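SAMPLE LOG
Freezer: B-3
Tube label: C17
Construct: single chain, 238 aa
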Amino acid sequence: MQTNTTAAPKDDTFIQGVKDCIPTLLGYLSIGFAAGVVEKTAGLSLAEIALLSLLLYAGSAQFIFAGMITASYSVTAMIFTIFFVNLRHILLSAALSPYFRHLSPMKNIGIGSLLTDETFGVALTRAAGKERISERWMHGLNVTAYLNWFVANMAGAYFGQWITNPERYGLDFALPAMFIGLLVLQMASRGQIMKDVVVAISAIFIIVGMSMISSGSLGVIVATVLASTIGLVMDKWK
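STRUCTURE (predicted):
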C-alpha cells in the first residue's frame, strides 16, 4: 500500500529562505550599522534606537528620522515625511500579492509587514516562472533580514558613541550607495538597458519638476508611479 506525503519541497522551507537571504546580509549589516551610528549621533538612546529598528524597520525612513530630529523638525512633519517615503512599500506588496492569494489576509499582513526592498528583490527573482511562493520560505527570508537589521542597528548605536561626525566617513551616503548598487545590478541582469535608462531619466525629470512645486518626498512617490507606468507602456508596446 502506497502512502501519499505532502511534504514541502526542499527549496520551499524556512531554512532555505534563511539561506537565500544570506547574500543580502552584508548590505544589511553595513547600512544598519551606518543607521545606528547616525541615530546615535542624533541624540537617540540605545532603547529608542532598538524600538526604531524593530517598529519602523525602514532604512531610508530611519536616516530621515535621525536627520529631522537633529534639525528639530516638528513631530507632524516627521510623521508625514516618513509616511510618504514609505509609500513605496504599497507598490512592493502589490507586486508580490498575486503569489500569496492562497493565504488568509492575516498571513498576508504578516508577510507584508516585514517586506523590504532587498527581500522584495530576492522574492521577485524567486517568483520567476511560478504561480505561488512558499509562505515558509518567505518567512525565513523576512525574519532573517529583520533580525540582522536589528543587530546591525544596535552595533552601530553602540559604537556610534565614539563617532561624533559620521559624515566624515561617508556613513550618511551608505543608504543611497546601496540602492545605486542594487539598481545597477538589476539593470545589468535584465538585459534591457535602453528601456531602463529611459525610465531612469524620466524619473529624474519628474522628481526635479515635482520638487519645484511640492516636497521632495512627494516627488519621489509621483516619479516612482509615473516612471513605472512609462516602463510598463514601453514593455506592452514592444
